[in-house]
Specification:
Elements: H1 16-32, H2 38-58
């Protein structure tokens, strides 16, 4: 069964283009912010550097 939403008029219909743009902007802010998801990218970068260092110490590279 489909979920269908009926709007009384165009005024009550949500502006999906604006909502999408806002969601993309919010994701960009979160992913680049140290308070958002940005810290994960920093941690992954540091873990990669550590793994590269360990590989060099063990002579794997």
């Amino acid at each position: 069964m489909e979920n269908i939403v009926y709007f009384a008029d165009e005024a009550t219909k949500p502006d999906t283009a604006t909502q999408y743009a806002t969601a993309v902007d919010n994701w960009a802010l979160l992913s680049n912010s140290e308070d958002g998801f940005g810290f994960l990218f920093t941690i992954f970068g540091q873990l990669k550097d550590i793994a590269d260092g360990i590989s060099k110490l063990l002579g794997l590279v």
